[in-house]
Inverse folding.
């Protein structure tokens, strides 16, 4: 279901919401994705299809209302936030070459547009090995997914906002995926109370019931959707919203979920929403601003999703090969 952002083709939407089908597909179970030529890997958790109540009736945030029923098709989601170990070879060709078995990058991989090299340390001194990659724009995150596809032949993308909340809740209806007790948050998340104002290595805290770590805290995570404060209003009289998504058509704002190491507990609620902001580029001296980096957002990262049924080559191309919208 898509009632906002209808300027994009239905073909693009097909990449996001592919009907559940096991024919010709691998078993829907947890797996580890190998990038053999770089000696890298990452794991993906099998997220079952189902329905849930999206939003929060008890929150004072208007953009989380009204609560509404949402149906989600099965998919895979990465166990952890994408780390610098995996992200850095995409950013720097020389790093990728140093990891490549023969010291060379395949032509089809080299053809993928890479980010401009950041003019400052995008780890901000918080750590690299095992730490979540941070500070990338929405466009940057999409191009990283394309780079992974070129390496693996598997279509990876950003989660929709509805998929993200569904996976985060993991069958729960409480404030957090472990319950309503804010005091227990320290066992599951890095946030303002225990983070020392910096990222931590992924996978240290307890996971949710579906095996996903750091869904709350550490870094906030990109979703694919455009942010509309009133997006849920259209579902007030809809019995069940079927895989809803607000396909993005503008540069700002996009939806970021999960809260980060700098946030208080309220921002880490399963229903909490946050819009991206052009102020995240205040430090960028370029005119126009970079398409690739948010130097004032060292608290934003990403997590991967794979639909159960891989889209066609045309659908994949449409998803990845979108021209960046110039910043101001």
């Amino acid at each position: 279901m898509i009632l906002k952002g209808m300027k994009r083709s239905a073909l693009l939407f097909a990449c996001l919401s592919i009907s559940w089908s096991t024919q010709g597909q691998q078993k829907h179970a947890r797996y580890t994705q190998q990038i053999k030529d770089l000696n890298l890997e990452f794991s993906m958790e099998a997220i079952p299809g189902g329905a849930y109540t999206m939003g929060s009736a008890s929150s004072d945030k208007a953009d989380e209302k009204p609560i509404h029923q949402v149906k989600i098709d099965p998919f895979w989601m990465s166990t952890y936030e994408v780390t610098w170990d995996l992200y850095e070879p995409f950013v720097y060709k020389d790093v990728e070459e140093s990891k490549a078995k023969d010291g060379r990058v395949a032509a089809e991989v080299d053809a993928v547009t890479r980010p401009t090299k950041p003019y400052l340390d995008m780890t901000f001194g918080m750590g690299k090995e095992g730490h979540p990659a941070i500070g990338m724009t929405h466009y940057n995150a999409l191009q990283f997914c394309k780079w992974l596809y070129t390496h693996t032949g598997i279509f990876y993308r950003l989660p929709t906002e509805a998929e993200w909340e569904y996976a985060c809740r993991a069958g729960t209806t409480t404030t957090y995926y472990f319950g309503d007790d804010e005091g227990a948050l320290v066992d599951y998340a890095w946030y303002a109370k225990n983070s020392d104002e910096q990222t931590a290595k992924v996978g240290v805290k307890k996971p949710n019931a579906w095996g996903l770590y750091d869904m709350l805290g550490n870094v906030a995570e990109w979703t694919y959707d455009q942010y509309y404060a009133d997006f849920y209003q259209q579902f007030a009289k809809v019995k069940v919203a079927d895989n809803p998504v607000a396909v993005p058509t503008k540069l700002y704002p996009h939806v970021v979920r999960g809260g980060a190491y700098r946030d208080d507990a309220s921002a880490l609620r399963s229903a909490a929403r946050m819009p991206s902001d052009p102020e995240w580029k205040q430090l960028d001296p370029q005119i126009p601003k970079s398409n690739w980096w948010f130097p004032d957002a060292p608290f934003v990262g990403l997590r991967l999703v794979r639909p159960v049924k891989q889209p066609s080559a045309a659908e994949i191309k449409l998803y990845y090969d979108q021209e960046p919208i110039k910043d101001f």
